Amino acid sequence: MEGVFGDDWVHFFGELLDRGSDSETDLIWRLLDVEPGMEVLDLGCGYGRIANHLAGRGCRVTGLDVVPALLDRARRDAREQGLDVAYVEGDMRNLEWTGRFDRVVCWFTTFGYFDDEGNRRVLREVARALRPGGRLLLETMNRDWLLGRFQHASVVERDGDRIVDRHRWEPLTGRLVTERTLIRDGRVKELEYFLRLFPFTELRDWLLEAGFTAVDGLDEGGDPLTLESSRMIVVATR
């Protein structure tokens, strides 16, 4: 996933995402009932924008990601802020912890990039890494909303650079496939990736099968999920 979520991704989207980090951390804190001193895992932490905010509020935070360049930036930002965050390079399908965490955060569409067995394995690994009674917060697109407003192409521009995405929906696999042309500093990069999207009921059933005992579906503001919700937040209790 480094080709999708490396330095180029931060260049195009990082500044926009940073603007929402405080309010998003507020929402995570409230929905997960987080308290200072809790052990929190940020799964797919990227460059640490949420992990560092949680650490700044007194949590003992571990951030896991597969992209070394993003972890380097996360560590640098943590040092500059005087924060102690354990950043780990690793695959979310193979977590090294059992019964370690009070809370796990999987924020801003970081789940769904593997085949179905791989995605199910992620959920089982998270359940194993949580303490009994621990909670997972998983945020992603609301598939039902997206399909009702499907766009076959999108363009993002910044400082003369450009991303052109061409999207197609695969109803037999539940995958949103993106063909991306990235133009930055005069160089052109072509890549393709997919994201598995879920209706709430399917993701709920997967979580229950993975070992969770209760699952709630919420919108981007923490209210009950509806067809008009562009984002879906799932809170699952171990």
Describe this entry's structure for a reader.
The protein has 238 residues and is of the alpha/beta class. The chain folds into two domains: 2-141 and 199-237, Vaccinia Virus protein VP39 (Rossmann fold, 3-Layer(aba) Sandwich), CATH 3.40.50; 145-194. It has helices spanning 2-5, 7-19, 21-31, 49-56, 68-80, 116-129, 143-148, 200-210; strands spanning 39-43, 60-65, 86-89, 101-106, 130-141, 153-158, 161-170, 175-184, 187-196, 214-218, 231-237. The strands form two sheets. Strands 3-2-1-4-5-11-10 form a seven-stranded mixed β-sheet, sandwiched between helices. Strands 6-7-8-9 form a four-stranded antiparallel β-sheet. It is globular and about 50 Å long. The model has no long low-confidence stretch (mean pLDDT 97). InterPro entries: Methyltransf_25, SAM-dependent_MTases_sf. This is SAM-dependent methyltransferase.
